[in-house]
Amino acid sequence: MSVGAAAESHATSRSECAPTRRNRRRPLRTMAPMDALKTLGLFVATALAEIIGCYLPYLWLKQGRSAWLLVPAALSLALFAWLLALHPTAAGRVYAAYGGVYIGVAILWLWAVDRVTPSTSDWVGVAVCFVGMAIIMFGPRGAGR
After folding, report:
1. Is the whole-model pTM more than 0.85?
2. pLDDT of residue 134
3. How many Å apart are CA 85 and CA 108, to the nearest integer?
4. DSSP string covering the chain, please?
5. What is the pLDDT of residues 86-141, one digit of tens each?
6. Which residues make Cβ contacts (< 8 Å) with residue 44, sequence separation at least 6?
7. Helices 33-63/91-112 angle, 10° precision
8. How confident is the model at residue 145 (pLDDT cuts 50, 70, 90)?
9. Which terminal residue of the chain has fewer beta carbons within 10 Å of its beta carbon, N or C?
10. In the structure, what pLDDT confidence band is assigned to residue 5 with cuts at 50, 70 and 90?
11. Around Cβ 57, how many Cβ atoms within 10 Å?
């Protein structure tokens, strides 16, 4: 056994036996209730900006409305991107959790704007998405993660 391998073996066995600064468990962090409400509100605002930014071109393309609707649509999509960037956590986590809120807001849009009553399976799907969003965004994770 070489000197380097012996030192590595000794370091490995020592770190397994006694807690050191490096291998101590980090405390789990959860989001404070006020931060959770702010995050949820920001997700709802973000979803509305995205839906409006996509709905206005839909009106132009499918219902023959004015092409001028593309101007507020572009502004709404720019607002959407800006709002999504305001979240303090990792982008992938934000995008994944945001998707659940978007689905809920889209179903409410279906009901309020398109005047289509959501089915029971629509509401069950929204509930499942909200549970997934809550697990992703508000579940405990190690410090610094």
Report:
1. no
2. 84
3. 24
4. --HHHHHHHHHHHHHHHS--TTTSPPPEE---HHHHHHHHHHHHHHHHHHHHHHHHHHHHHHH---GGGHHHHHHHHHHHHHHHHT-SS-HHHHHHHHHHHHHHHHHHHHHHTS--PPPHHHHHHHHHHHHHHHHHHHS-EETT-
5. 876 667 777 888 888 899 999 999 999 999 999 999 999 999 999 998 888 777 77
6. 101, 105
7. 60
8. low
9. N
10. very low
11. 16
AA letter at 75: L
Residues in the chain: 145
Tokens at 101, concatenated:
């809120």
In 3D space, the residue among 54, 141, 124, 130 whose CA is nearest the CA of residue 98 turns out to be: 130
In single-letter form, the type of residue at position 138 comes to F
